[in-house]
Amino acid sequence: MLWISPWLRPLARVQVDALAAIGIETLLITTDRHPEPVGLRADEVIVDQSLKHPASWRGFARAYRRARRFAPDIIVVELVRDPRWVPFTRLAPFVTMVHDDAPHDRTELPPRRVQRLRARLDSRAAAVVVFSDYVAEQLKKTRGIDAHPVPLTSDLPDEQVPPFVAAPGRHDFVMLGRIGPYKNLDVLLTAWRRHRGGAGWRGDELVIIGAGPLPGQAGLPGSLLPESVRWRLGSFRYQDVIADVAASKASVVHYRSASQSGAQVLAMQLGVVPIVSTAGALPAYQPSGETPLGVDDVDGLAAAFDALADPQRAADRGAAASEHYRRHYRSDHSASALRTLFDELLR
Asked: CA 249, CA 308: separation in Å to the nearest integer?
């Protein structure tokens, strides 16, 4: 299997490793745009996607020659933006992966040429893979595509998951990832102010981790963050933040638009309960008993902070989230579903 993933190198690595574990030989062609992982593996080819650099064309030619020698039986293509990937799709039947049915907000709208390229590939693909019934339904409704849902796994390798953090070690709430309008920061910070000023607060901070505009530039109410909010601004590597996320009381994934959220499955993998909205992240991913909140439900979000401020309750609900991840979203579950689809296509 040839896997082409210019933007999601960590997740692609996890997925191809899981497929290799069940007997599928893989070659991954990707870029180094993602801040991790580091190093180059024997089953991996790195290309430079810059159209303006002449050397990048030579890199694509070398990658194509290696892919042709590899002689794949099937190809996976996800989130490509460059027409130079099209010749690769002629080497074997190919599958496209669609992670979201629409951009989260205006900042994520790709150029029209990219939209046309992806639509053309989806229309020619032997199958379109998505990671939820919700996105499958949306693609059927808006584009007439019959997509195949498979479980979304975390892009953190299981061997890098730290030990489960018990109640005495739990502190703070986190929000992780690229910060944009769809992250619903104004509602989040309003709810945090209410929690911080009430009887339920137990000295925790709200820690926002990720690249994005500074407060005030992000449409937040005012240029100053509320009390007990800390923003670790900029891109990050997992090794620098995973211990803090694993020790948190909850991960906030309370978004304004639907997202097949890596932050949501990562939280569960780490034994942390995600707080999600009815509109954002995916309510269907939540463990039993975890109720999504209305996207503008400030009172509900503040009450969620109050409840999870109890470290024992946070640890108990985090343990349930971890078990839910192991039962449904671990990488071997994703690989098994993909293997079944590949076998059907090749037959």
From this structure: 6
Which residues have a Cβ under 8 Å from the Cβ of 347 and sit 6 or more positions away?
none
Query: What pLDDT, in 10s, does the model give residues 303-338?
Result: 999 999 999 999 999 999 999 999 999 999 999 999
Q: Which residues are 27's β-sheet partners? A: 2
Asked whether the beta carbons of 269 and 134 are under 8 A apart, the reply is: no
Cα dihedral 326, 328, 331, 334, rounded to 10, equals 170
C-alpha span between 46 and 262 (Å, rounded) = 23
**Spatial contact of 345 and 339, defined as CB atoms under 8 Å apart:** no
Structure tokens at 77: 């293509």
Tell me how crowded residue 148 is: count the other CB atoms within 10 A of its CB: 16
3-state SS assignment for residue 202: coil
What structural domains does the chain harbor?
A: 2-153+331-346 (3.40.50.2000), 158-328 (3.40.50.2000)
**Residues contacting 320, CB < 8 A, separation 6+:** 273, 287, 288, 289
- Burial status of residue 23 (CB atoms within 10 A of its CB: 0-12, 13-18, 19 or more): exposed
Residues whose CB falls within 8 Å of the CB of residue 75, separated by 6 or more in sequence, listed in order: 1, 2, 3, 4, 88, 89, 91, 92, 93, 94, 95
C-alpha angle 15/21/27, rounded to 5°? 55
- DSSP letters of 132-198? SHHHHHHHHHHH----EE-PPPPSS-GGGPPPPPPGGG---EEEES---GGG-HHHHHHHHHHHHTS
CA distance 265 to 43: 26
Residue 218: what pLDDT?
47
Classify the phi-psi angles of 65: left when phi > 0, otherwise alpha if psi is within -120 to 50, otherwise beta. Answer: alpha
- How high is the mean pLDDT of the chain? 91
